[in-house]
TrEMBL record:
<keyword id="KW-0689">Ribosomal protein</keyword>
<comment type="similarity">
    <text>Belongs to the bacterial ribosomal protein bS16 family.</text>
</comment>
<dbReference type="InterPro" id="IPR023803">
    <property type="entry name" value="Ribosomal_bS16_dom_sf"/>
</dbReference>
<feature type="compositionally biased region" description="Basic and acidic residues">
    <location>
        <begin position="85"/>
        <end position="117"/>
    </location>
</feature>
<dbReference type="GO" id="GO:0005840">
    <property type="term" value="C:ribosome"/>
</dbReference>
<feature type="compositionally biased region" description="Acidic residues">
    <location>
        <begin position="127"/>
        <end position="136"/>
    </location>
</feature>
<dbReference type="InterPro" id="IPR000307">
    <property type="entry name" value="Ribosomal_bS16"/>
</dbReference>
<protein>
    <recommendedName>
        <fullName>Small ribosomal subunit protein bS16</fullName>
    </recommendedName>
</protein>
<dbReference type="Pfam" id="PF00886">
    <property type="entry name" value="Ribosomal_S16"/>
</dbReference>
<keyword id="KW-0687">Ribonucleoprotein</keyword>
<feature type="region of interest" description="Disordered">
    <location>
        <begin position="85"/>
        <end position="136"/>
    </location>
</feature>
Length: 136
């Protein structure tokens, strides 16, 4: 059985309140859970001591038994000093997709063609002016 330490949402519409629970990974977010470890109230200020309340002893017990915390809960446990949490690194996140790259390449080609045509037109305009100057 794969165990997760995750958030289960409570509260009313636009007033979120979460319980930090240990649950089977196959159960729904707000469904059956094994044990409640604490709670998280995102409406409180970040420096409020009641914003995140976790029973660290029980959390350590479940981590030792193989429960995997979700990203948000791992952040909380890292702040409490129970585990080491590192910010994720996704260097390709901001990179454009394949179609966007193709469109960008087409746009560059069109701009280069315009510049080449403008350069040719400028060269042709200078050539007759030079011929007239030479004729006089």
């Amino acid at each position: 059985m794969a165990l997760k330490i995750r958030l289960a949402r409570g509260g009313s519409k636009k007033r979120p309140y979460y319980r930090i629970v240990v649950a089977d990974a196959r159960m729904p977010r707000d469904g059956r859970f094994i044990e409640k470890l604490g709670n998280y109230n995102p409406l409180l200020k970040k420096d409020d001591e009641n914003r995140v309340v976790i029973d660290l002893e029980r959390a350590k017990h479940w981590l030792d038994r193989g429960a995997q915390p979700t990203e948000r809960v791992a952040r909380f446990l890292g702040a409490a000093g129970l585990i080491e949490w590192k910010h994720g690194n996704n260097p390709k996140k901001g990179e454009p997709g394949q179609k966007a790259k193709e469109r960008l390449e087409e746009k560059r080609e069109k701009e280069e063609a315009k510049k080449a045509a403008a350069a040719e037109a400028a060269a042709e305009a200078e050539a007759p002016a030079e011929e007239e100057a030479a004729a006089e």
